[in-house]
Amino acid sequence: xxxxxxxxxxxxxxxxxxxxxxxxxxxxxxxxxxxxxxxxxxxxxxxxxxxxxxxxxxxxxxxxxxxxxxxxxxxxxxxxxxxxxxxxxxxxxxxxxxxxxxxxxxxxxxxxxxxxxxxxxxxxxxxxxxxxxxxxxxxxxxxxxxxxxxxxxxxxxxxxxxxxxxxxxxxxxxxxxxxxxxxxxxxxxxxxxxxxxxxxxxxxxxxxxxxxxxxxxxxxxxxxxxxxxxxxxxxxxxxxxxxxxxxxxxxxxxxxxxxxxxxxxxxxxxxxxxxxxxxxxxxxxxxxxxxxxxxxxxxxxxxxxxxxxxxxxxxxxxxxxxxxxxxxxxxxxxxxxxxxxxxxxxxxxxxxxxxxxxxxxxxxxxxxxxxxxxxxxxxxxxxxxxxxxxxxxxxxxxxxxxxxxxxxxxxxxxxxxxxxxxxxxxxxxxxxxxxxxxxxxxxxxxxxxxxxxxxxxxxxxxxxxxxxxxxxxxxxxxxxxxxxxxxxxxxxxxxxxxxxxxxxxxxxxxxxxxxxxxxxxxxxxxxxxxxxxxxxxxxxxxxxxxxxxxxxxxxxxxxxxxxxxxxxxxxxxxxxxxxxxxxxxxxxxxxxxxxxxxxxxxxxxxxxxxxxxxxxxxxxxxxxxxxxxxxxxxxxxxxxxxxxxxxxxxxxxxxxxxxxxxxxxxxxxxxxxxxxxxxxxxxxxxxxxxxx
Length: 692
Prior knowledge:
Elements: H1 2-35, H2 54-64, E1 71-78, H3 85-101, E2 111-112, E3 118-125, H4 132-145, E4 153-157, H5 159-171, H6 175-193, H7 200-224, H8 230-259, H9 265-292, H10 300-331, H11 354-364, H12 366-381, H13 402-413, E5 422-427, H14 431-439, E6 444-453, E7 456-463, H15 470-482, E8 487-489, H16 491-525, H17 529-552, H18 566-594, H19 599-626, H20 634-666
Helix pairs in contact: 1-7, 1-10, 4-5, 6-8, 6-19, 7-8, 7-10, 8-9, 8-10, 8-19, 9-10, 9-16, 9-18, 11-12, 11-19, 11-20, 12-17, 12-20, 16-17, 16-18, 17-18, 17-20, 18-19, 18-20, 19-20
């Protein structure tokens, strides 16, 4: 028997080391692939555009024309008092230098403005092709040649300049986003754990999970062609740290409890995994299922974000349920210093917790609390009516770069001419007819035939209205209506297709997300009412968070538009992540009910025991998404704000008050039609046996 005990003890000591060794081997294998993710990350138009839209087909067909993809710039020379002869000479000399240093598709010709203050030189080249790095180098070199000369303002704009400035922001989603996220999570963990060592363990494990997720994302790209953009890769990192830290908080909290009941850390960790493992697995499964629903989207960027987000969540789950327990067991109790949970001890008697007080207030007047909370969320949701209109391409930057100011200068100087071309790809045998039809379309200032190849001809149209104005949109729609069999694209058409496809994706993806999440909750909680409460709660949170966005985006932040994808992406993330915390709370409530607790007592006990962990997890998750508000693109700021605010509302209002008060008010009906919804049987009295 002693030998058996020795073997068991040896197994307990050896398993953590085995898990650690397996992770070292896995990370060694994943290393080369994780480093390659940046090589397959692209932020070209086709990586964001809808798969079936006209503008996507135009971008793809242009790649096949002679010379490949076209890089288009506009050099803008401007002097408020009017251009001088020397200014025009300087402009001509700079353009000649650019033509000498680079291969251009045609000699640039200057177009003066009617008021004589501005001179525009369109510059087009096939030299960079589809290589984004070469495009950025080309744009940077043109900007180096064209710079201010003695009061003459020189700006470089156009689609390629806008793309280069955007890629500079997306580049910050790599290192700077990671460092900022790590710093935010580290500060919160130090405040939560109040230990000089413990905070570092889940943070390092989350970092390793992110490393593994990058390798898995690269594998998805190679195996299935999954689109990897700067936006999706950045959000994947946020999910790894946010969700992973949430799981770590739940596990460490339960592990601390079990260390007081078990002498050996190994046994305490086994008990902790048995206790919280099912809830963590269910919550991560719900998040993964919600994100995978994005595969039904037609928008390339949304469809690619689903698998990458799922990979991030699953890698975080694997690390927190295997590597984190192994490291904690090997470090022993001393990792909690100075608040070490001694074996056989009991926690110090603490003051009545905040969540116990909140639960008591919800328990005394559940209907009043429920009605008040619902009214508050409804009032906040009305703010969504104040959301600004669709975001224009020139308004996507938080700080206005040179490409934006150049386009604004053009809009003022050439009010009757668009600075952004409308591109038409038409069958080569119909090029003449298409050109004639385009010139005869209302709102078209001019049209000219371009390259021909592969059976297609390129026609460039200049609209008479400013980019992304209602008049230009009408021109694009008229061209699409009249040019059957041709494709109409270009920057403005791309923005139009993005808005239309996002509207389509919302109608398709939202019901799928709700249904999949609801089915998972029904299977987990074995009830129909409780899952409906949780789903209704997260939908209400989403509406309130969007409403808060409507109250601050334009009045406070100065944003002149709302990203078309904000509604769908914020819905998917808030529903999937919000249900996460509902699972933690309801799972504990069901556990208490199974022990025989009355419904009200079960709800209040669940809130008291899980409220602190849920609050800590909510703060961490909200903080990680809030990091996006420091990025330089308005769509990322808007998404980060809505999700962060939504998580905080869900954590401190919905889970604490509304779900608890609804559970108390409904009583056992919350578990209908499961067996817990029935009236508990009264204990039977035992009939004493006759003596003798």
